[in-house]
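Priority: medium. Attachment 1 of 2:
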């Protein structure tokens, strides 16, 4: 073991350009018990997490730590798998330095750290300990969960007119053009499926009291019935979804086997002694309960790191209130007074020019709603500029135009000038952030067109709906040309049939331009016909990869945008193909049989199911573009990103558009309000503001994240009307008319 001073000296010698700040060192000296780390943007929270883990494993003979902690007794959760990998890599790099300086430390195996997303760790631990409720269980992703609900739930399988009352109570889960209570019929089966998935996930994540739901009667009793039906189907079919996985794990922790995992076994491995949580602002109530249950056995050693001002995932079930009221959670779960909770601000910003820091500090506190009790962690310190970036220049400014096209032209000219004069080394150092990057006239279209006219390449993987992409439709059409050559099984549903027709047409165009593709598909059709009344030797997922080896798909692998989309599509196909057939758990859907009747194609039942399930899901699930974790802009391109994509990233020059965005009450706000009537833990009931207020807070946080991505310059882009905030309720421009234009320089 070594001292903390020795650890810091080895990792940050005098020649190093950085060293832990007093704020960071205070966290590293935290002795035990819960710690509340309020890490603002650019404050080095990943660094602190890595150093804290190293301190636990290597440091001893200190007032705050007598003996090192075994790596297997430390559990660290991150929000994404990418973040977990980055944290492990950083710990690994630092370990190598420490072992080089102190070879005896080499016996400590840091690979035994439990690092990952909470979902991944729950799954691994339940399997490792052979939890009774998780024996031989198949964990479903979101795609398979939707398939499962579609095929099993009575409210989807049957068209009971009595359910109109149920769906009318949750009409906000539907887009008005898709379904409204005034319609004479029920929502479509896929619309019902999507709504039920949202409801079931929210019930699990919010730890809703289902028994209390039953007593409420009416539509609440119906939802409680359906939720119990869903859970019974999961049990009967040995399935679990990601939300239920957390409930399984929480229940496991309270069993004798779970207690043994937490406390350890005498003479064997020790239990969990420290729990570290990253991005705690996006935690939900069932996750909160898990963390406190794990921390309840060894001195309450729970360290949570996050920033309530950067909470952006309410729409995915996150409850920023868990972060804001962490001290109250310690009182409820651990019987500890707020004064006993270590509260550590990380308020030094190592990313941005001082004027950028001043701007986003003023922005987040300018709104009256942000200053209401419960909106933010009380007593938060303002961020301070520690980046070392200096210079008396307009680090924060505005590009105004009479129209969006005019503003977009000025934006593209600015980027071109930065590249031309070598102010940036590569176009990828200039990023445009928008609320939506669809290339339509109201969204990214004018900006992307202006960049291209300026001779700049654009990286915009979300440039239009996923299913409208040429490579997506062409790939799906190629599969259909093989599996249903004549198109005789195409469903009659207008929206679904049109999507299928579009896919087949896109394939036909590609096959005409690339004869090798068409020749290969025809060869496969003939091969299938030669095996009448037999199972096809090649599975669906294998066929998919063979198609991808044909032109133009093989050439598109070099395109970073197309490659990501095709990878996502093949992952969905693999998931579908590996799913068991309804009623036969031993047969996978990817196994296909040839009909015994001419024209000897794949049997009609298989093809129809493929259309209704796989294509039905794609067409009606609102398939979003590639996930936030997958975006890596290649050199030579200007990245156009959503603000959510940019979370955790930084760029030398950041341009932010969509300044006219207003707060929008969404599904999550309404579900939160309604589910709050049935708290699973009556002692953890949040005093929620009205949905409209929460929507405003969420929009403020979203643009706070956007504004804090910039290193050297933050440039807002919009029309004169947008910047003036004529209506006074366009959140990106501040709390009132003229707020923005009074503070920033017009460039």
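Attachment 2 of 2:
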């Amino acid at each position: 073991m070594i001292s903390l001073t020795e650890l810091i000296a080895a990792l940050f010698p005098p020649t190093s350009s950085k060293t832990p700040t007093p704020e960071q060192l205070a966290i590293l000296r935290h002795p035990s018990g819960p710690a509340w780390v309020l890490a603002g943007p650019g404050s080095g929270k990943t660094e602190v997490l890595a150093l804290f883990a190293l301190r636990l494993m290597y440091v001893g003979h200190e007032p705050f730590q007598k003996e090192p902690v075994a790596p297997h007794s430390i559990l660290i959760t991150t929000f994404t798998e990418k973040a977990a990998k980055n944290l492990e890599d950083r710990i690994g790099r630092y370990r190598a330095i420490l072992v080089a300086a102190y070879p005896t430390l080499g016996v400590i195996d840091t690979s035994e750290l439990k690092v990952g997303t909470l979902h991944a760790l729950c799954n691994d631990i339940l399997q490792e300990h052979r939890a009774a409720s998780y024996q031989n269980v198949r964990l479903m992703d979101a795609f398979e969960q939707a398939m499962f609900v579609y095929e099993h739930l009575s409210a989807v399988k049957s068209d009971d007119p009595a359910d109109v009352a149920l769906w009318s109570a949750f009409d906000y889960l539907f887009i008005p053009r898709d379904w409204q209570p005034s319609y004479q019929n029920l929502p479509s089966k896929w619309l019902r499926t999507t709504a039920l998935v949202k409801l079931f996930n929210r019930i699990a994540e919010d730890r809703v009291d289902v028994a209390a739901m039953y007593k409420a009667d009416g539509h609440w009793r119906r939802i409680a019935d359906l939720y119990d039906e869903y859970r019974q189907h999961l049990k009967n079919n040995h399935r679990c979804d990601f939300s239920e996985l957390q409930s399984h794990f929480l229940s496991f922790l309270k069993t004798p086997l779970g207690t043994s995992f937490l406390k350890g076994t005498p003479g064997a491995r020790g239990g969990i002694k420290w729990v570290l949580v990253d991005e705690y602002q996006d935690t939900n109530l069932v996750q909160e309960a898990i963390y406190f249950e794990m921390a309840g056995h060894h001195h309450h050693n729970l360290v949570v790191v996050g920033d309530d001002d950067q909470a952006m995932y309410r729409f995915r079930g996150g409850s920023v209130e868990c972060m804001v009221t962490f001290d109250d959670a310690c009182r409820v779960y651990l019987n500890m007074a707020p004064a006993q909770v270590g509260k550590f601000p990380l308020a030094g910003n190592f990313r941005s020019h001082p004027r950028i820091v001043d701007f986003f500090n003023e922005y987040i506190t300018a709104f009256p709603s942000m200053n209401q009790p419960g909106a933010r962690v009380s007593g938060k310190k303002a961020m301070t500029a520690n980046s070392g970036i200096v210079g008396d220049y307009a680090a924060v400014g505005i590009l105004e135009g009479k129209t969006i096209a005019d503003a977009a032209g000025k934006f593209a000219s600015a980027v071109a000038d930065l590249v031309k004069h070598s102010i940036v080394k590569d176009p990828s150092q200039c990023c445009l952030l928008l609320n939506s990057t669809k290339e339509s006239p109201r969204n990214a279209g004018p900006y992307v067109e202006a960049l291209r006219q300026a001779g700049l390449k654009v990286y915009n993987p979300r440039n239009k709906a996923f299913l409208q992409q040429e490579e997506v439709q062409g790939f799906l059409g190629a599969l259909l040309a093989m599996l249903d050559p004549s198109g005789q099984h195409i469903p009659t549903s207008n929206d679904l049939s049109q999507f299928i027709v579009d896919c087949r047409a896109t394939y036909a165009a590609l096959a005409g331009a690339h004869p090798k593709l068409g020749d290969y598909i025809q060869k496969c059709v003939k091969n299938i016909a030669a095996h009448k009344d037999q199972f096809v030797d090649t599975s669906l997922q294998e066929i998919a990869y063979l198609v991808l080896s044909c032109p133009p798909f093989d050439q598109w692998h070099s395109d970073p945008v197309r490659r990501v989309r095709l990878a996502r599509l093949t992952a969905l196909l693999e998931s579908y193909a590996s799913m068991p057939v309804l009623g036969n758990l031993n047969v996978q859907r990817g196994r296909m049989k040839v009909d015994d009747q001419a024209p000897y194609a794949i049997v009609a039942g298989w093809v129809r199911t493929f259309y209704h399930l796989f294509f039905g899901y794609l067409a009606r699930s609102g398939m979003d573009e590639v996930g936030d974790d997958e975006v890596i802009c290649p050199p030579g391109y200007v990245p156009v990103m959503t603000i959510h994509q940019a979370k955790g990233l930084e760029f030398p020059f950041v341009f932010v558009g969509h300044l006219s965005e207003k707060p929008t009450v969404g599904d999550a706000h309404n579900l939160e309000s309604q589910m709050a009537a049935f708290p699973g833990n009556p002692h953890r009931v949040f005093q929620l503001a009205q949905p409209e207020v929460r929507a405003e807070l969420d929009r403020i946080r979203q643009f706070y994240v956007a504004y804090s991505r910039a290193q050297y310059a933050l440039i807002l882009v919009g029309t004169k009307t947008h910047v003036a905030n004529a209506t006074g309720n366009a959140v990106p421009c501040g709390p009132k008319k003229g707020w923005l234009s009074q503070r920033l320089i017009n460039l």
